[in-house]
Design a protein that fits this description.
Ubiquitin-like (UB roll), 2 domains, two-stranded antiparallel ribbon, metal-binding, BCD1, Znf_HIT
Length: about 270
């Protein structure tokens, strides 16, 4: 057993291939690794290991994709005038704030889970927001985050050693034990090729709205919280020496000419 290291393993996780001896160890390994235990149907398999079972699995996966896409296209919400007006309003309000907001068709995971709204009385966005902590393999979803809230205040319940929840603090102890000056907040730059992924570094002292200005967002913002002292593979634009850093003015002028990139459902 790769969890307790004491008993003989009886089970193997279909997702991460970890061996476990009991239901208790299975639950512990899922909690520790944020593993859902569901087999990854799109995981890479080399040609030498490719079997008839892999071929059958791929065939059934493509059939499932086709059925899901067809069901999504037939969904009544797709043709609902109210839904179209709501999405048009959100995109229009975001454009007025110098934010290029793109929405996905019904059926995509991000479209289904997005809860972003705009309050006309307060003239304020309440964002659906996802926080990802790569060093701890943890992610959290926030709903109704006001756009005038600073990123530092958004992160306090998670990485502040005093104000964070004890359970969250224990899970993110790498972050809570590090000085705040080591924390970096990154957001992926959309509409780039897969072999040229870059990130923008955000300012924790500024509001969420100020940080999103001049950016392209697909459905809702996803923020990656990393530490300077720990190695990660995220390349920040302008810090790899190959491309200049983007500023808000240059981004703003280029938003109108941004081409629609290939959109993939991350799920």
């Amino acid at each position: 057993c790769e969890t307790c290291g004491k008993e003989e393993a009886k089970y193997r996780c279909p997702r991460c291939m970890k061996y476990s001896c009991s239901l208790l160890c299975v639950k512990k390994h899922k909690l520790a690794l944020s593993c859902n235990g569901v087999r990854d149907k799109t995981a890479f398999v080399s040609v030498n290991q490719f079997t008839d079972l892999n071929l059958l699995s791929d065939y059934r996966f493509l059939e499932d994709v086709g059925r899901t896409a067809d069901a999504a296209a037939r969904h009544c919400i797709v043709h609902s005038p109210a839904t179209k007006r709501l999405l048009y309003c959100l995109r229009n309000k975001a454009r007025g704030c110098n934010i290029e907001l793109k929405t996905l068709p019904v059926g995509f995971t991000k479209r289904r889970e997005n809860s972003t709204t705009f309050n006309s009385m307060e003239n304020k966005f309440y964002w659906h927001l996802k926080l990802i902590f790569p060093h701890c393999r943890a992610e959290y979803t926030l709903k109704g985050v006001p756009d005038d809230k600073t990123l530092a205040d958004i992160l306090k319940p998670y990485i502040d050693p005093v104000e964070s929840d004890p359970v969250v603090c224990q899970r993110l102890k790498i972050y809570t034990a590090s000085p705040q000056s080591d924390v970096r907040i990154l957001m992926k730059i959309e509409n780039r090729s897969r072999n040229s992924v870059r990130y923008n570094e955000l300012d924790a002292s500024k509001s969420l709205l100020d940080n999103l200005k001049g950016k392209v967002i697909i459905e809702y913002p996803t923020l990656f919280v990393v530490l300077k002292t720990l190695k990660n593979d995220m390349v920040v634009l302008g810090q790899d020496g190959s491309e200049p850093a983007e500023n808000s003015d240059s981004e703003s002028s280029s938003l109108s000419s941004v081409e629609e990139g290939e959109i993939r459902d991350s799920s």
